[in-house]
Structures are given as C-alpha cells and as structure tokens.
TrEMBL record:
<feature type="compositionally biased region" description="Low complexity">
    <location>
        <begin position="579"/>
        <end position="590"/>
    </location>
</feature>
<dbReference type="InterPro" id="IPR043502">
    <property type="entry name" value="DNA/RNA_pol_sf"/>
</dbReference>
<dbReference type="InterPro" id="IPR036775">
    <property type="entry name" value="DNA_pol_Y-fam_lit_finger_sf"/>
</dbReference>
<dbReference type="InterPro" id="IPR001126">
    <property type="entry name" value="UmuC"/>
</dbReference>
<protein>
    <recommendedName>
        <fullName>UmuC domain-containing protein</fullName>
    </recommendedName>
</protein>
<dbReference type="InterPro" id="IPR043128">
    <property type="entry name" value="Rev_trsase/Diguanyl_cyclase"/>
</dbReference>
<dbReference type="Pfam" id="PF00817">
    <property type="entry name" value="IMS"/>
</dbReference>
<feature type="region of interest" description="Disordered">
    <location>
        <begin position="446"/>
        <end position="473"/>
    </location>
</feature>
<feature type="compositionally biased region" description="Low complexity">
    <location>
        <begin position="446"/>
        <end position="460"/>
    </location>
</feature>
<dbReference type="Pfam" id="PF11799">
    <property type="entry name" value="IMS_C"/>
</dbReference>
<dbReference type="InterPro" id="IPR017961">
    <property type="entry name" value="DNA_pol_Y-fam_little_finger"/>
</dbReference>
<feature type="domain" description="UmuC">
    <location>
        <begin position="24"/>
        <end position="234"/>
    </location>
</feature>
<feature type="region of interest" description="Disordered">
    <location>
        <begin position="574"/>
        <end position="598"/>
    </location>
</feature>
C-alpha cells in the first residue's frame, strides 16, 4: 500500500498514510561543554566562552555565538571574531561525561525507554506514559507546551494530536527537572518518530521546545537544504545521491523511485524515500552500559619504549577513574597501537587483549578501587601486551596508544539470574570468575582486535533491589563448589578472607600461564586452579550422588537444584532434555568454548 503510494505520488506527500502511534521526545543540551564549564565556574556565565581542544573551539556559549563563533572554528579565527572570548580548555572529557550520565540517569526516572545519543542528546519514548495520561484528560483542553511547527489542522482520527501535545508537556517537565536539579538549559523536539523529533528539536534554540504534527512532516522535511540534514544519510549515501543530482531533501522527495534503485538496493531506495517524507519507524534502542571503557592518546610520533610507557601510565590513571565511576569489575584489558609505516606513508591499528584478574580490583563501601599493587599489575600487563605488538629489536613509530577495559564481570545481574541468585559479595563473585576462567583457559589466550560485543552488560538497578533469596542454600552450594567445609563458609569473615586469597593466587597463576605461554593449542592445560576445580567437581559428585531428581542428570545436587528459581529450573531441564544443543561433553567438558557460557557450567559432570 505504501509503496503504491510512493509510486503514484513520487512528488507529493504521504500525509495521513503513515502510522502515528508513538510519542517520542528528543532532548539536546544547549552549548553542552560550555554549560558544563559555566556551571563549574559561574563567573563565565556573563562573558563569551569558547571551549578549546587543541587549536579548535569545539563549542561556545550563546554569548559568544552572538559574535559569530561557530562550532569547530579555529581558535585564531574565533579570537579575531571575538577578542574578549574567554577560552577554557576542554580536553579532559571527564566533567562532560559525568554531566552526560547525570542527565541520562535523571531522564530514566520517568521509567520510559531512553536512548542516549552521544554526550548531550537523549531520545525518550513516552508512548506508554502518554497513553496513561490520555485517559485522564479531556482531549479538547490539552494544549501544546512550547512551540508547534504549524498549528494543528483537523484532528487526526488516530488521536495523535492530543498524544503529542501531552508529550510536549512531558518534555517541558523533563526540561524543567534537568534545569532545576542539574542547572542545564535544553532544547526538545516532540514528534511521532525519532527522525522528526531530532530534526525539529533545534527549531527554537536555545532553551525552548518544538512539536511537529504528522501532517506537517512532509512540508517540514522539504525545507531542509541538504540530504545530509537527515541523520542516517552519511557521506557515501549523499555522494551517491548527488551523482543523481539530488541535493536537497525536496529533491529526494521528488525523484522517481526507480531512479533511486539504480545505485541503491530496493530496500534502501524505499527507506531513503520514506525518510525524505519524515517517515521513520526505527525503535528506540534503550541505552545500557557501554560494552567497553577506553581511552586513546594520539600524537605525532613516539619511537622510544620509555615514552610509550609514560603515555600508557597516564592513560591508565585516567582509565581507572572511568572504571571506578562505572563500578563494574573489568576482566579483560585491550591495548591498541597505531603504527606508522614510514615506507608506505600509511598507518594502521593493531590491538591485543588479555584477561585480567578481578583480584586487581577491590570493593569497599560499594565503590570499586584499584590499590597500588593492582595498578602496577595492570601496568605490567599493558607493557606485556605492548611487547607482543611491537618488535623492539627493530625501530618502531607509533602515532596512537589506547587502553580499554573490554569485558566486565557480572557483578550485578537481573532478576532470575544464576549469578544474582548465588552471590552478593565480592568473594563469591570471584568464585564464579575463577570457574569461568578455567572453563575456557585452553582457548582464551591473548587475541588481537577482539570484538567487545561479547561483553555482557547487566541491569544494575534490578540487582540492587533484589536480595539473595536463600542464603543457607547458597552457603551449601559454595562449600561444595570450592571444596570448603560448610563450617568454613558459614563464617562470612572466614569465607571472605579465605576465598579472596585463594582467588588471587589461583588467578595469578592462570593469567601468568596464559601471558607467558606461546602455545595457542586448544588442549586444556593443567594448573593448580584447574586441579582445584576438578576436585570441586569431584566433591560435588560425592555430595550429589544419590540425588533423586527425576529429570536431572546424576551429578546434579537435588538440594541445590530445588533451591533455584523456577524459571531457572525450567531452563536447566530444557537443556538437559535436549543434550545435542547444550550438553557439556563428558570427554572434555571445559574445551567446549561455544558452550562455556551456558548455565550448565554450574553443573559440571565428572571427569
Ligand atoms: N562537540 C565536539 N566536536 C564537534 C561537535 C560537538 O567535541 N564537532 C562537543 C561539544 C558540544 C557537544 O559535543 O558541546 C555537543 O554537541 P552539539 O552539537 O549538541 O553542540 P552544543 O551542545 O555545544 O551546542 P547546541 O546548543 O547547538 O546544541
Ligand atoms: Mg547540544
Ligand atoms: Mg547535540
């Protein structure tokens, strides 16, 4: 139906045909870095301020914009245009990150999906909240908060006008809260999709908001001077469009679909056409926590190891601040270098990463810390990875060094999670981590440019409110798993100290083994940690034998199994029922990397 419309009306709008059930808000902070600086130093409020990174003014306050200062202007040009410009160094992004996270956290208090886009933008899908409010109001009395792109014509039969007006009121509430609690002025856009919400947002800048009704989408889009104004159209697509003599959004609206199908796939052609009319059904991708936390330092050339070490050391100090703020325990560290090839006049990136021991980090009063010993361990790991990336017997030229924590321990997890059920404190976390390490040791040595996508991020808020349901069962479980007596475990202080010592020693040995080894064979290696785990499995067997669980394998402890939440029991039973997809092979249970992360690893069969 839509495609027919497109065919028959390639030069006209689809108003009324697209679906308008959603209510989306886009919020952008005014002159973000400059506002952070003005909040830190209120004396800056009354003067023109530019935020400088290297020789560029990345942004400026609105006072400075009156003098024609634009984003990414050269400092020399900016000072010429505004001799009184007060320049503030903005190379440390940390204060901006902190402010950005605070705004994101505040927006989450409305309990609607929030998608963070860059540092100073957020989409909020208020569809459900608006639907609740619609029931409580007389639609005729609802008014627009802020501006409307055009006055509403005849009320759309789907009721979107009232919903969008209510969404504009929510946007106003959000902006007020951001201002009252954090001190930032913002702009907001309200529409039935993300594309229009983002594009309408800057219509009344700064410190104001705009709404667009669906029937005005087409005419609004036709005012955009370049196809590059559409966020999903990048340099390559716009080049291809320009080769078809399509420059403005209006050109794109008018072009016949078959012409677009020459350079683009059919789907892409349809999508481009829809975007030009302001149609976009992209859902919000709720922002979780980042998969990796990293920093890079670029420079002209570094060719001496000691200088590399200094730069890594400085990066590490800053990275530790970031990871402390994040609160998750990293278990993998990646080193990145950009190497300059003098002969080819080119450069390329290379990375290596390895697992790191969680015992490097400590938790006190709920905060993550890296004691000095841990910092030097991290630094020596960094330099070991560096040594693997660079042949020091030959000259080298680097133009960038980077460090990133790429995987994190499941310190806190959502409802029903095995990890959440079993652990509440750091010592128990380490038990599981050790287990995981050993499970995959044969195949988890250093590897280059590994994708961080395998990292798992977890829902912090969920875990914080969920208590561990059955402590006595947990104690039993740990005792069996780690060859400890129940008495040892029952004393929390004994467990904590004993377990942590054990973990740090064992993990050091495991990571030493990995770092020192050049053998990449997948054959599992014997290690003290592995031996201990084997013992643990044996001890589990001893206790679990005689279990009368009907559908569970014999090595499973009935008592532990019955203490698991129902959904987890179902999950396990399903996996045991279908051994082809999930059974841990008896011959080499820990070499099956693909399966190493299934819930079954907590129920290891015997050797
Ligand atoms: N930024 C940057 N480099 C750029 C563009 C922006 O470092 N090329 C930084 C500085 C900005 C921040 O990102 O403060 C947010 O970018 P915006 O485009 O939203 O610009 P501002 O928030 O500064 O200004 P506006 O009031 O126009 O939103
Ligand atoms: Mg902004
Ligand atoms: Mg922005």
């Amino acid at each position: 139906m839509e495609e027919q419309n497109m065919e028959s009306s390639s030069s006209s709008c689809f108003d009324g045909y697209s679906e308008h059930s959603r209510s989306i808000i886009h919020i952008d902070i005014d002159c973000f870095y400059a506002q952070v600086e003005m909040i830190r130093n209120p004396e800056l409020r009354s003067v023109p301020v530019g935020v400088q990174q290297k020789n560029i003014v990345v942004t400026s306050n609105y006072e400075a914009r009156k003098f024609g200062i634009q984003k990414c202007m050269l400092v020399t040009d900016a000072v010429k245009a505004c001799p009184n410009l007060k320049l503030v160094n903005g190379e440390d992004l940390q204060p901006y990150r902190i402010a950005s996270n605070k705004i994101f956290t505040l927006l989450q208090t409305w309990k609607c999906p929030v998608e963070k886009l860059g540092m100073d933008e957020n989409f909020i899908d208020v569809t459900n909240l608006v639907q609740e409010r619609v029931k409580m109001v007389d639609s005729k009395s609802v008014t627009v908060a802020g501006h409307a792109y055009k006055v509403a014509s005849v009320e759309c039969i789907c009721g979107c006008h009232t919903r969008l007006k209510l969404a504009s009121q929510l946007a106003s509430e959000m902006r007020s809260k951001i201002f009252n609690e954090l001190g930032f002025t913002t702009c907001a856009g309200v529409a039935h999709n993300k594309l229009l919400a983002k594009l309408i947002c800057p219509l009344h800048k700064p410190n104001d908001q705009s709404l667009i009704f669906p029937e005005h989408a087409c005419s609004f889009m036709s005012t955009l001077p370049s196809v590059r104004c559409i966020p999903s159209i990048g340099a390559k697509t716009s080049e291809a469009l320009m080769s078809l003599n399509i420059h403005s959004v209006s050109d794109l609206q008018q072009v016949a679909p078959e012409i677009l199908q020459k350079p683009f796939s059919g789907d892409m052609a349809v999508r481009l056409k829809k975007l030009s009319f302001g149609e976009d059904n992209t859902p919000l991708k709720q922002t979780g926590r980042p998969l990796s936390i990293g920093l890079e330092d670029s420079f002209k050339t570094v060719s001496v190891k000691s200088e590399v070490e200094e730069r890594f050391s400085a990066l590490l100090q800053r990275l530790i601040v970031l990871v402390r703020e994040d609160g998750r325990i990293p278990v993998s560290l990646r080193v990145t270098l950009r190497k300059k090839d003098a002969k080819r006049l080119s450069s390329h990136r290379e990375s290596r990463q390895c697992q790191i021991s969680p015992s490097i980090f400590t938790i006190s009063n709920g905060s993550l810390n890296v004691p000095e010993a841990g910092q030097s361990k991290l630094m020596s790991t960094v330099m070991r990875l560096f040594n693997k990336l660079v042949d020091l017997t030959k000259p080298f030229h680097l133009t960038l060094v980077g460090l990133a924590f790429t995987k994190f321990q499941d310190r806190m997890t959502g409802r029903g999670s095995m990890v959440n059920y079993l652990m509440n404190d750091i010592s128990v976390q380490s038990v599981l981590n050790l287990t995981n390490d050993c499970d995959t040791s044969g195949c988890s040595m250093d590897y280059s440019a590994a994708s961080p996508s395998s990292s798992t991020t977890t829902d912090l808020s969920d875990a914080e409110v969920e208590p561990s349901p059955k402590k006595p069962k947990k104690v039993n479980w740990i005792a069996k798993r780690r060859c400890l007596s129940k008495e040892d475990v029952a004393s929390p202080s004994k467990l904590r100290v004993g377990e942590l010592r054990l973990n740090s020693r064992e993990l050091e040995k495991v990571s030493e083994l990995r770092l020192n080894s050049r053998d990449r064979s997948l054959t599992p290696r014997a290690s003290p940690a592995r031996e201990c785990l084997s013992d643990a499995s044996d001890s589990m067997k001893d206790i679990a034998e005689g279990s009368n669980c009907d559908s569970c394998p014999g090595y499973v402890d009935q008592e532990v199994f019955s203490a698991l939440p129902g959904d987890m029991q179902q999950e396990l039973k399903a996996m045991w029922k279908n051994p082809s997809s999930s059974e841990v092979p008896r011959s080499s249970p820990r070499t099956n990397k693909a399966k190493s992360n299934t819930i079954l690893k907590y129920f290891l069969p015997n050797k």
